[in-house]
Records
---
Amino acid sequence: MIGFIRGTLISKTPPQLLVDVQGVGYEVEAPMTTFYELPAIGQELKLFTHLVIRDDAHILFAFATEADRLMFRALIKVNGVGPKLALTILSGQSAEEFQRCIQDNDIQALVRLPGIGKKTAERLIIEMRDRLPTSTDETGARQTVAMSSVGNNPGQEAVSALCALGYKAQDASKMVQSIPQQDKSCEDIIRLALQGAARQ
């Protein structure tokens, strides 16, 4: 609903930020990994957002990178993990660090995070494993998880879009890599990737 906001940082009191967007003050909640990357008060910034609607409140969560927002969205799909706990997890670890914990079955690292017990850590590993790339190749992992916030790479945008359509990250990456990308838009790459998948 609200994909990102760009404006002037007015105040920062973890986990809350106030951002002035053309005269409208947006109160957002952000993980500490985002706070570490914030500019000084009065400076302009851009944040990727996710809106959570509850009976008693509408809460806008904000992230410095698309990777953190993708991880947040994956986390809140896990049984027993709500937005607040997902924010806590991303405050204690970056998206890449969390991915390593899942891939390495590192329960001990997860239980060090506030609010995460052994059972929750085990559930996170079981349920998140299929949502993360199984390859330990660093380049592949970074391409999937640490997507550029600049958004000027049509190939990366296509991978992200295919993941949003329900493809596993590793499969989406393979589909896009099989397409010659020179002079092609993100939409062209997605269309060709889907056509190729339909023929298989």
Note: DSSP finds ten helices and five strands in the chain.
---
Amino acid sequence: MGAAMTDDDVDGFFSTARLRGRAEAVQLGDESYREHLLDLEDPKLAAWRGLDREEFARRRVDNPFVQGLLADWNALYREPFRGITTDGAVREGLYPLADGGEPDVEMGRAVARLLDVLAPERLAAVRYPLDAREWRAWSNPEFAVHRVGVRLEDLDADEVTAVLAVVEASLSPAGFARVRETMALNGYLGELVDLPQVMNERSYSFALFGEPGTGEPWGWQLFGHHLALNVVEVAGRHVIAPVFIGAEPALSDDARAPLFAERERLALELAASLTPAQRRAAVVYGSVLDPDMPEGRVHPADERHVAGAFRDNRVVPYEGVVAGDLDDAQRDLLRRIVADAHLLLKDGQRAATLAEFDAHLDETHLAWYGATDGSQPIYFRVHSPVLIAELDDHAGVWLANRLPARFHVHTTLRHPNGNDYGRAWIRQWRERTGSPSENDF
């Protein structure tokens, strides 16, 4: 991080303050996100008012900063899929796929209903081969980097209901509630800044991959601002990864708790329980803007999280304390954090996925950036051979806080070593059935 950087706007949304190392740690106060609302006539908001989403997207990308960001993302998108690794080499044999799994009946019925309801032109637009590269085209800005599938805003009410029924049938009840709350918070943000044409509860693209109802692997994708889900069914097993869920603000003014309140509570309880020796190992950086971070560690869009959009092949070395050095109560807290990250999975699927996590518990690392007492914004990552789960407090984009705060949060979930998008399982299924790959994923 260059000490000479000034607190300047990069493109009207991002500032160098979110990147620059600070000798003093960022402290959290008692302020509400409402104290960081911009005046509705502020040029940052007023300049976009009245534009439809297409014109907003055209203007939003028309500056050097976003053009550079898109160029970087497109270069990553063009790489053949390998999977996130710690050293560039995929570790094989981590995702054994058992024989005899049965397709999920509820998912099958819901997707059959959707295929009946969609208008012919939308039916043609929503479907892709199982190995289509478009799986990897998801992103989380307010504008679509790549056009994939159908946009919920363009569907009629019956079609939207049918899409959401597929989502609901694929997730646990609690997981579906989290997804719907995330979508509602996006609509709430659109109301706060009076830009509902840019951000609303339907600001999401949906696509189907493969041939549902045939017993072959298939899945679906839903993505847009602060939400991206990739759901795959292979031989009776489900993988929901990559996942990106975030919110700005992460709560509204009603009685609901903040979106990630339970995960943050568990994480802070675990961090507070660390012994001095454990804390020295776990705390990689003492602040989320620690000046000792290497150049480029904080990304202008992603900030600290490493497993977001287009990072399918990232090399992420282990950091932090090893779970084998934690006591039983601490490992239980760690597992509860991971269980919350897998909340979207149905109970049986989540139990099977957590069993795979348990098998590698002694190789699991907890990395922590920031104070462990809740007085500062935080970033933490749980990382094992079969899991990356992150939570990162962010600076404002549509709110005015120029430094990270608890009310703008991003979370990610990945299955490293090649099982994002269920690819490790799909490869095994192809080997068993002799089914050839259709595309260079």
Note: The chain has a mean pLDDT of 94.
---
Amino acid sequence: MQHQEILHRCFRCGYCKLPGNYVDLNCPSYAKYRFETFSPGGRMWLLYAWVNKKIEPGKRFQEIMFSCASCGNCVEHCTLPKIKDYLLEAFTAGKEELVNNGTVPPAVRDCLTKAYNHGNMYGLSKKKRGDWANGLNIEPYSDQEYLFYVGDVGSYDPRGQEIAGSVASLLKKEKISFGILGKEELCDGNDAKAMGEGELFKHLAEENIKKFNSLGVSKIITLSPHAFNAMKNDYPFLEGSITIFHYSQILERLVGNFKFKNSLETVKVTFHDPCYLGRHNMEYASVRKTLAAIPGVVPVEMDRCLQNSLCCGGGGGNVFTDILGGGPESPARSRIQEAAETGAQILAVACPVCAVMFEDAVKAGNAENNIEVKEISEIINERLA
């Protein structure tokens, strides 16, 4: 297994499962289950025992490995420089060994099979991939300045489709030159890689890059931070020929051009940092600058924010497999409570995965009267003149 030489170096000191101020729990799987085996240090110990043939990779072992949301909090707070940069890589390598051996939870197996057979994690028809854009008069990509890459959640999940449409409408209002791939779009592969399916990720990446190059794409706007991360950091074949943007970075440039209503009700808004935008790519400023520029919006911060943000629990493929699960102790439910405690009326998100996870948590926790989940382009659209 790759990186197995670092497994024994982990002191299991526990800092990896905490935020920077050490007053709460910040590893989503440990916060949910409260067993040390579900913490990053516990996973290191289990992997060490496994590669040394002390334990077998049974059902519980598999669930522990695949409950990791790949949020990066452990990397952020690990105290050992020689291993911190390889923590997530070690966990991914462990999952890859499980995948290669065929010893994975059924939900993971089914999800990866769907991605391989259909080009998306939902296993739905490619012909329906562009249905989110019906009636919006969005052109297929030809020679526009940007390709708007929507991804699986934006293409197939009803809530993701709403967000894709909202972002696209703002781009159109500001006459941004962009097109979409529609049914020609494929999964970005970020979550397949996080689930240990490196060969599937490579296949998806190669097919995407082949498509981009054939169309002469030079700039891509992604809807999901997951796609932003994969294309920016893990597509080794781009060789700097394509510039990748997350849509929040484009909105930051545009917000000064928007014409807002003259009279707007004041509303408190707190922003949840997506893991693949924040910790994985150090992009914390764009959304905050955009929110601060919207008339009537009063930004407030949660205690766990920026590099200490608590993951929604949807990363690492969990939004598709639901291995991390729900319940009162789920990271999404905890995050909703934390957002409500700021006094904010709106929890703002910039990721369709986060939107899906949090809205499910609001419904499950009967918190509809406490706080509302909205994506940042929706906040802007509601306030435009």
Note: Strands lie at 146-149, 178-179, 219-222, 243-246, 267-271, 297-300, 346-349, 372-375.
---
Amino acid sequence: MKLATLRVHGTTRAVKLDGDVLVDLGAPDLGTLLAQEGWAGQAAAATGTTYPVEGADFAPVVPRPSKVVCVGLNYRNHIQEMGRDLPEHPTLFAKFADALIGAHDDIARPEETGKFDWEVELAVVVGAPVRRARGEQAEAAIAGFTVLNDITCRDWQFRTREWLQGKMWDSSTPVGPYLVTPDELPGSVRPALDVRLTVDGEVMQSDSTADLLFDPVHLVEYVSTVVRLNPGDIIATGTPGGVGHARRPERYLLGGETVVAEIDGIGRLENRIVKEKTA
């Protein structure tokens, strides 16, 4: 199944893709749906109100996750281009729900940064509460996968040894448009999918999720050791090589560009970089 959160009539609705329409699943958003026991069967059987796919206004696939955990340095080529050694353990940082935007929303470029960069990522969406999950339990906790663009203020990221302040900027991180369940993907909970990012049509990143150093199941195991994972939580699995910061000369988003981040079999984010509106 392909599931999403749709903005409609001033509110949001959880929906599933069925041909050229989106079928209402009887919940206000995917986070609410995933918290319900038996959500997958409910979604599969849904025959509610429909909305056209054409012109759909997608909200973040989960608008208010309890946590967004991100993984840095998880593709070998990106690790090498950033001049780092292969890590023994996942490198974790966090985002907050206020950073998340929809698949086609504008990305607000803060006036405080001069180094605004892109990072296409496969993201795991959690579908069951787990703590210290292992093996089959960790696999079963994966509701599906989506696309995330971990837009980063590099100058703020590297002000200190901790990355958080470069990663959590308001309205900077598109995620969606769909959550795709593992049964629809080659490799299931360890999918092997082509990943790409373009800026104004120029390819900047191109790789396969098969090259992840720490795969999605391992990440669910690792993160859930540290903190409880709840339905709707998101784990961004890291970005491949090709980021602007590692290019020579460095290249950043200045404003006016269209950034497309896509993963085969899952979906496409298309966002325009705009100046942030200030009060």
Note: The two ends are 41 Å apart (CA to CA).
